Amino acid sequence: MAHGLRVREVPLDRLPDEVGPGTALVAVAAVQSATGRIAPLRDLSAACADHGARLLLDTSQSAGWLATPVADYVVCSTYKWLLGPRGAAFLTGTDEALAELSPLAPGWYAGADPWNSLYGGPLRLAEGARRLDMAPVWPAWIGLAPGLELLGEVGLETVHAHDVALADRFRNAMGVEATGSAIVSLAVPDGTAERLQEAGILAALRDGRLRVGFHLYNTEEDVDRLVGALT
What we know:
Helix content is 32%, strand content 14%. By secondary structure, the protein is an alpha/beta fold. A four-stranded mixed sheet has the order 1-2-3-4.
């Protein structure tokens, strides 16, 4: 209990059922980083609407390959599936929900007139969502632009079909049930990560399992090479 708030953590599949009259905010990753599981977004949105709770979606593992439903708040790190360098992030939301937020440590960039907010006080915040802005990390945003342009040109449906098809190709080869996710989590014996690295394949170990994700830059040959190294 802090600041009069009680935080609860519940299993993903039970999340919609745990939303009740006393729930103020539900925060969940649209796609789970470690496992690639897709959150029950439709049921969760309905549960939040029924009980007047705000819904915050972290789309860091889904934006770029999976459509995101409307939510009170949507946050996203852009250095993953949006093909950007580390240092840029997005926050979007409904007008009503954003109006309830107050910046914890606003700086000059959040001022009503940023260039006249550099020195001295008081800081007069901008109207609307810009009062939540932080001074951008310029190289990160410049580097992000080509990635967003590429994703826009290819189109979300095409990206989704490509990524999930590769992931399902890998699942099928490894005898794992298809889930519709571009991220695959697999139980592997000790030493697997080192063996893959020796084969020139970079993969991550998350929560004791092998985690691989497939995106635009991957091909069927990449999948088959991974399968060969594992089997």
